[in-house]
Write a structure and sequence with these properties.
The protein is of the alpha+beta class. The protein has nine helices and twelve strands.
Length: 291
């Protein structure tokens, strides 16, 4: 595109170079497949670089690796998780360079089968974490997440949209990307009359999620240190204060700051089909954008 400006003595022609980055990626949500897994994983790794859960898993007392090795493992872990959702869930993103990414597990889907574990690389996680890291992840975190979701959702456990991860990397913050990712899937959930479920590991995010209709159901605490501080209280129900999400504490070694997960659920809202347009995603998923 050429832009001409002139004065009494000079004429300047400015040419805007064509970019190969699709222009619609700037403000439109899109679903991605395994071919874009690495880019989405790196974005989430940047978004969760200061996350308490991440540090809890990688900073176990028996870990002797330096920061560079921990960062590489951190990126690889997200590559495994994103890949598993590309195969069996849904990964949505927005921005020209995966500025914000959301990992969803739609109704009736899960990524726990052996084929997905092998294809995604999730099986490697058992061997790459330290012994204490494995205990925290496989024996502590995963069972609590599974059991809590089942207790909170009941018969709707497998009939809801599960927001597993939502992250915006630093370069994409304050541009409304996270809002668009949530709205995008909320429209689908509303059209189907289904609830949405998430765990928030950031106190400040609870208020943000409430703007979309999410309500706090309970807080879940992970770690023997917290159990000792609050005898008999592993999960509690009530309001809590917690941009990127997930948290944990451990037994045995030195004390780690307690990690809190706030469980939140969004009930479906009435939607007028006359004011929605179906948008085709990949692998049989579709969504609706409200006019």
């Amino acid at each position: 595109m050429a832009h001409v400006s002139s004065s009494s003595s000079t004429t300047v022609i400015e040419t805007r170079k064509r970019s190969l980055v699709p222009e619609q990626w700037e403000d439109q949500v899109r679903a991605i497949d395994i071919s874009e897994c690495k880019g989405a994983a790196l974005s989430l790794a940047q978004a969760f670089a200061t996350d308490e859960l991440t540090q809890y898993l990688l900073d176990a007392e028996d870990v002797k690796d330096g920061d560079e090795s921990k960062w590489r493992l951190h990126v690889d872990i997200f590559a495994y998780i994103v890949a598993s959702h590309c195969y069996k869930g849904l990964v949505t993103t927005i921005g020209p360079d995966y500025e914000a990414v959301a990992l969803w597990m739609p109704p009736g889907k899960d990524s726990d089968d052996w084929l997905t574990l092998l294809r995604s690389g999730m099986w490697r996680l058992y061997y790459r974490l330290s012994a204490e890291g494995r205990r925290r992840y496989f024996n502590e975190l995963l069972p609590v997440l599974h059991d809590t979701k089942h207790e909170v959702m009941g018969e709707r456990d497998n009939d809801s949209y599960y927001l597993v991860y939502l992250g915006t990397k630093p370069s994409g913050q304050r541009r409304g990307y996270a809002r668009k990712l949530i709205d995008h899937m909320a429209a689908q959930a509303d059209a189907e009359g289904r609830a949405m479920y998430l765990e928030s590991s950031s106190l400040r995010n609870n208020g943000y999620y409430k703007k979309f209709g999410f309500e706090i159901k309970r807080d879940v605490y992970l770690g023997a240190d917290l159990a000792a501080a609050l005898p008999g209280t592993i999960t509690t129900t009530g309001a809590s204060d917690s941009s990127n999400d997930k948290d944990v504490s451990s037994s045995g070694a030195a004390a780690h700051a307690p990690v809190r997960l706030t469980i939140m659920v969004r009930e479906p809202r009435p939607v007028s089909l006359a004011h929605s347009i179906p948008i085709k995603l990949h692998s049989g998923f579709s969504t609706h954008r409200a006019l």
